Known about the structure:
Elements: H1 3-26, H2 31-60, H3 64-92, H4 96-104, H5 107-220
Helix pairs in contact: 1-2, 1-3, 1-5, 2-3, 3-5
Pfam families: V-SNARE, V-SNARE_C
Organism: Eragrostis curvula
GO biological process, one term: intracellular protein transport
Amino acid sequence: xxxxxxxxxxxxxxASASLSRKCTAASALDGEKKKQKLSEIQSGVEEAxxxxxxxxxxxRSLQPSVKAGLLAKLREYKSDLNNIKSELKRISxxxxxxxxxxxxxxxxxxxxxxxxxxxxxxxxxxxxxxNQSTDRIxxxxxxxxxxxxxxxxxxQDLHQQRQSLLHAHTTLHGVDDNIGKSKKILAAMxxxxxxxxxxxxxxxxxxxxxxxxxxxxxxxx
Length: 221
């Protein structure tokens, strides 16, 4: 169902219940107080008519499968409002108290009041269901916000872990560079050591040759 329609529907149900109470109160008043109460009821009826027009426009803008059910509800609300208007007209007439007693003696009026009471009962039940739906929507939104906060927290944690991994990767890359440099230094040292071995070997060979020559000369002379 359309949330917009539900909002108008909830407002109408509350307005209808309020108008019913005011009609009951106005029927027991006289004089200026009754005029003031009737003026309040008339204003409330105009607001209720505006809400019904808004519900009608909203229902007709929806898909046929949804529209049919809403228009059926709307017919009940229009009937309920017509009953309220009839009640307003009755209590606005001169000698309304006497007229009330006479009309209540008529079976048709009794049936109308019974239907009106039944409709108002349904309206109250509808209002209760709408309030429950509103509570469920609020709870769903609260859960959605909590889930969103949790998602943001998880993303922040993942970002921090990614930064840590990038830092570790950078550190490992630096270690690899240092190992490469160390290998180059060791290779250079190994080459120098090999070169030094040949030099030392040549020096030793020269010394041995010199010693042998010296011994040879001593022996021959």
